[in-house]
Specification:
about 400 residues; alpha+beta; Barwin-like endoglucanases; Ribosomal Protein L25, Chain P; 2 domains; six-stranded mixed beta barrel; six-stranded mixed sheet; 9 helices; 19 strands; globular
Length: about 400
Amino acid sequence: MKNRILFSILLLVVVSFALAGCQKRTSLLVDHEEFTKDYSRPLPPGELALRKITNPDHIPDYTQALSDLDGLADAISRSLNYMAKPSSKNFYPYGDITHEHAVRSLQELKKLISSGRSPGQLNVILREKFDTYISVGCDNHGTVLFTGYYTPIFDGSPVRTDRFRYPLYKMPADLLKDQDGTILGQRMPDGSIRKYPSRVDIQRSKTLDGQELVWLRDAFEVYIVHVQGSAKIRMPDGQIRTYGYEAHNGWEYESIVHTMIADGKLASKNINLKSMIDYFKKHPDELDNYIAMNPRFVFFRLEEGEPRGSINEPITPFRTIATDKSIYPRAMFAFAAVDLARPVGFALDQDTGGAIRAAGRCDVYMGVGERAGELAGGTYREGQLYFIFIKPDRI
């Protein structure tokens, strides 16, 4: 789901001001205009997102989260798979955390949660044997906005038909990116590199003809897949194939929802994907104009198995989070102190997102299909984000 754009900004906006260790729901329905915090406020140059907690009283009580460890060991194993790749060393040290320190932390955490100890016993060990770091958040006080994303399932076809006329494209050969996935631009015939064309220019030029991977039945479904970064497509013979993110064209994402509100097409108190789908079904002639307002264009690849995150490992529902990898440590063990419809608790930082920028943002992967989409759509809450590393003297 690399560079997947924020799904929840299209959806029902609900905010909860949840403090670490406090799981009481205090939600309220609000308009977009009522938000005053800049969750995407950048950190000063060179600063990281995490601050080590030195007062034990400020470390969360993990007991409740430790009563549900389903899927966590497998998610840690996937992070360890990534850390075993030589390329992972390019992103460490992270502050004072070396690559060796990060790997050992994951190894010890996997042993701990697989030990069969009670939640109370595990909590004591986590607090004594491991250091806890807190995200500085959007305000230097730890406030992080949590949102959700998912993998939709749509019908499609490997070839164009009268029913399936809207394609997802594979990455073109002239698009250049580095080993970290950063888009470098378009290689020109003379060898020079320029910024890749925008969405409108790509669609007008027809240069992607012949690069189609799969065809969908609706242009807005294609756009949803661009937003989410992956999809499962059900073929006419019933086979389901997974298509995952490969690259984008290097342009910043621009939300269409704010323009639709300003134009009076949607009410700000009813922002959800269904309302947008219903609107464009009634007004199909307006779809192209709104989609054109977002210059980012996404390219895909056929995947084996489940969707993968930005560390190229399969992602796990409610155990994978996406953050800004320029300021957060890749693949590491985290604790999400946030009150969601379904608790998150412990997760691995295995993904990134096009709209997930700065210390004040975190996206939670919620799985595949309609129910996951509903959960993602209801996720727009404040909380705190912690990372856990073994103490240096325990290595």
